[in-house]
């Protein structure tokens, strides 16, 4: 992030790449780094509306300004010619100055086809992203026990809600309530951390 380089995750079944990217964003915010998160479909829709309302450049500038920009569901939708132009402009404005995290279901090797294949826009976008970024490969050490973050947090919410109701009724001491919350968090974080490995390399 400090070097202004792009980062992209390799797909992993059941793992919420958007959650991982947002976890990095939270850490960046603690270091007073400006962060912006958006789904690709929402970004392209805003660009389309902005073009009709003659404020296209202002919208692009707003996305190009943050030091860390996270674009989720990268290339998960079919793109038009105007979409390709918007993506190229954004990538060009951020290249080697500001960091971008790309979260996608598609392997990096398949980006060219997802961008429409043989066209100058696709080649320009790929050239501006893949040659100076961090390629992070995330793999399960035990795929049979793979659990999504949504499932984990839904269970945590149920435990929190249930214990909070118990604490109110029984008038549990605040220190005990805080201690049990830590135990619940530790239980679920250790379950997932022991089942995921990270392999980072620079393109």
| Class per helix and strand makeup | alpha/beta
Biggest sheet statistics: 6 strands, mixed
The parts where pLDDT drops under 50 for at least 5 residues are 163-173, 187-200
CA radius of gyration is 20 Å
Give helix and strand order, one letter per element, not per position. Answer: EHEHHEHEHHEHHE
**Apparent shape:** globular
Number of strands: 6
Helix content: 40-55%
Largest beta sheet: strand ordering: 2-3-4-1-5-6
Summarize the entry for a quick read.
With 203 residues, the protein is α/β, with parallel strands linked by helices.
Plain-language structure description:
There is one protein chain. The chain is globular, with a radius of gyration of 20 Å. It has helices at residues 17-30, 40-52, 56-64, 81-94, 111-114, 120-130, 149-170, 174-193; strands at residues 7-9, 35-39, 68-72, 99-102, 134-140, 196-202. A six-stranded mixed beta sheet has the order 2-3-4-1-5-6. The chain has 203 residues and is α/β, with parallel strands linked by helices. The chain contains eight helices and six strands; from the N terminus they run βαβααβαβααβααβ. Residues 163-173 and 187-200 have low confidence and may be disordered.
């Amino acid at each position: 992030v400090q070097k202004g380089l792009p980062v992209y995750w390799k797909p992993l079944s059941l793992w919420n790449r958007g959650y991982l990217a947002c976890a990095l964003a939270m850490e960046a915010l603690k270091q007073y780094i400006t962060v912006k998160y958006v789904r690709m479909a929402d970004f392209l829709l805003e660009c389309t509306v902005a073009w009709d309302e003659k404020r296209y450049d202002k919208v692009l500038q707003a996305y190009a300004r943050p030091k860390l920009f996270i674009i989720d569901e990268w290339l998960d939708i079919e793109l038009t010619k105007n979409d390709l132009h918007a993506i190229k402009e954004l990538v060009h404005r951020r290249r080697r100055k500001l960091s971008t995290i790309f979260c996608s279901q598609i392997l990096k090797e398949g980006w060219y086809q997802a961008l429409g294949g043989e066209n100058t826009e696709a080649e320009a976008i790929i050239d501006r992203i893949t040659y100076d970024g961090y390629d992070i490969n995330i793999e399960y050490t035990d795929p049979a026990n793979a659990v999504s973050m949504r499932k984990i947090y839904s269970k945590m919410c149920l435990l929190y809600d249930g214990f909070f109701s118990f604490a109110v009724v029984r008038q549990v001491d605040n220190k005990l309530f805080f201690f049990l919350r830590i135990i619940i968090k530790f239980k679920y974080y250790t379950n997932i951390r022991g089942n995921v490995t990270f392999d980072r390399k620079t393109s």
